[in-house]
Amino acid sequence: MKLLYLTHRLPYPPNKGDKISTYNMLKYFSNKWDIYLGTFIDAEEDWQHVPTVQAFCAQTCIRPLRPRRRRLASLRGLLTGEPLSTTYYADGGLRRWVDEVLTTARPDAVLLFSGCMAQFMPHDLEPQVRTVFDPEDVDSEKWRSYAEAASWPLRWLYAREARRLLDYERRMAARHGVTVFVSAAEADVFRQLAPEVADRIIHRTQGVDASFFDPDCEVANPYTDEARALVFTGAMDYWPNVQAVTWFADAVWPAVREAVPDAHFYIVGIRPTTDVQELARRPGVVVTGAVDDIRPYLKHARAACVPLRIARGIQNKVLEAMAMEKPIVATSAAMVGIEDMPGFTPTVTDDADALAAGAIDILEAPPRSDAAARACILEHYDWQANLRRLEHWLLPHDGS
Predict the structure, then answer these.
(1) Architecture of domain 2-207+382-392 in CATH?
(2) Do 2-207+382-392 and 228-380 share a fold?
């Protein structure tokens, strides 16, 4: 069987949320399907990984994407009425390749990961070709949240993007066989926004490689002098992550540091923005930038700190910390889609003082592990089980 698989970013290395998903999908489907992969590279360092990705595929079209140039080009959406998110990824080369694959290779199914990739599919796709539209999250709701948090003129721009993107999401969902979201909560949100396709909206859940994120892994302690550390992991050029650590440093960290003078807040992740780098000037805050392996930082931290103010879907950073049996200190947005589990009692609050108190309690107590967190991962977040559900909709079936 042949699968046309379109993703908005090279699915390797699995070092950020979307690439964790797309890489695991690539591995899973390549065992049974001939993969025709169309994707972009938006970071120069990722070109070295092209051979790794091509080894999974029958054919690839990997297009360069230069963010600064694309941001400027995307502004034409203001004239055409299109979402800027889709015009950002518009690419004639990829569109021509997709048309050629559909004509010559004649794939049995199409998997579109990320909402922006649906624009490359023609309107007159042959009816026997199964299509799955996998936007993961309701991106229009993310932009609506951005608008609520921004001041003019960004508030106007973000609100416009939310409206235009929702219209696009509804049209793409109507055009394809099923639309899949990464959690039941996200699927429910979209059913309310797009009732005309409610019967074709499904969900999966996120996965985590529990054999890799194993609390018994042998990794050296990256912290100095047995520092009592809270750790935040994630791509640090992603605005919700930047907002999260900035808010925590401003509203929560001073109280934590006053109560626990040797406490450290480690911000671990690729491409920290200038605002994030500036946080390292504050007492006890460490910004690492890219690291080869985040497991040492998770294993030897007292807790994972996930103070997201804006979040869509299930957070990989939470799943990875749970797999490593780490206590969790988080806001409610960060924990959406996380299943309940007897004995799993993360500190979850949106109040800065309460979040500080929870962190202080963990830092002042002896180090502990949270076995119930890992048990939750093993029961609910297995990649193989999750992707079998997705594959069902790519295979011929009676629609039941």
Answers:
(1) 3-Layer(aba) Sandwich (3.40)
(2) yes
Q: Does domain 228-380 have CATH number 3.30.2350.10?
A: no
Q: CB of 207 within 8 A of CB of 387?
A: yes
Q: Record the pTM.
A: 0.88
CB atoms within 10 A of CB 59: 17
Residues forming a β-bridge with 2 = 34
Return the H-helix or E-strand segment holding 322. Answer: helix 316-323
Secondary structure E strands in the chain:
2-7, 34-41, 59-64, 109-113, 130-136, 178-181, 201-203, 228-233, 263-268, 285-289, 303-306, 328-330, 347-348
Output the CA angle 212-217-218, nearest 5 degrees: 135
Tell me which residue of 331, 336, 320, 147 sits closest to 239, measured CA to CA.
147
Q: What is the pLDDT of residues 22-79, one digit of tens each?
A: 999 999 999 999 999 999 999 999 999 999 999 999 999 999 999 999 999 999 999 9
**Rounded-to-integer distance, Cα 258 and Cα 49, Å:** 45
